[in-house]
Amino acid sequence: MSEPVGPLVACIHHPPKVDLAALGRSLADLPRPVMLENVAFKESVKLRRARQSPPVDPALLSAAPVPDAALLDVWERAEVLLALDLPEEHLDRMPRLRLVQAYSAGIEHLPVDALAARGVNLCHAAGAGAPAIAEFVFGRLIEQFRNLRAIDAMQREGAFHRPGGRSLAGRTLGIVGLGAIGSEVARLGRAFGMETIATRRRARPGETSDRVDHLSGPEGLDDLLGRSDVVVLCAPATPETNDLIDEAALARMKPGAVLCNVARGALVDEAALIRALESEQLAAAILDVTRAEPLPAGDPLWTAPNLTLSPHCAIPPDAYDERLLALFADNLRRYAMGQPLLNRVEPEAG
Questions:
Q1: Scanning 28, 102, 205, 207, which has its CA 20 to 30 A from the CA of 294?
Q2: Residue 293 is among the residues annotated as catalytic for this protein
Q3: Which one of 146, 312, 333, 334 is the catalytic residue?
Q4: Residues 182-196: b if buried by 16+ CB within 10 A, e if exposed
């Protein structure tokens, strides 16, 4: 692929409405002039989920958005894309593409291998939602430990009594995946007076981190599960993390612990989780993500005891978009200057 010449064309597919003038001013000093486009492109949630496990049903593909003239024009010219969705079947329409900034932290629905084969850099958005996700985690934990739902029920019934509950202070918080999200969860855990322990995929034996009281590699998972009063899953979905929390892992957890998953549904064996809740091995579970999204009516998770569900909504869009666009601008600048990219995906690492 020859070196690009002329203006650097960068297109934002999602969010659908962006202040291009403000974004352009932040990039005005780059060695190549930047042409910013904002042409919306977004597939259905159903199709996005289906792309995680190809091949996709042809009937579902037939209902995919059809590129119009404006979209085809920008694909022909674009060197950089910020995208929530990027159909592999249209990549040949993007001959100049060199960099894709994913809108989300998860990239399971994107054509990772096809982009790598074309020499296109792909960057995920891990970290853009980290503060908001950590807030959500502790909102749910406070609700659980301080029995806030029972207090609300008493108000509705007009009959107060002592609700019981537990304090977070002095308890042990285990974080599986000390990346951007895990680090924010750890920061808030310390603010609540919790001991913080974590695993990180590439942590070396004996490595420490000022973000937590104790850090280990994946080999430390069993110890973390056995020591933690709260286990928060923040790791990416990879072949190694599929069913990471299975029947055996749940049995190793501290009796009466709380499991919180704000990562990906694939990390948890949901049938085993329900059994752990029914047997009271776990006091509670908090799931913002599930294997099937949206969760189908009639799924046993809906009625599992002491399970708090939410529809993958830990991040409010306004806060996320602001941080995401800042990450995009940073990576666009790095790309133009020939500097290392943030959150670059390494397909060979899974």
A1: 102
A2: yes
A3: 312
A4: bbbbbebbeebebbb
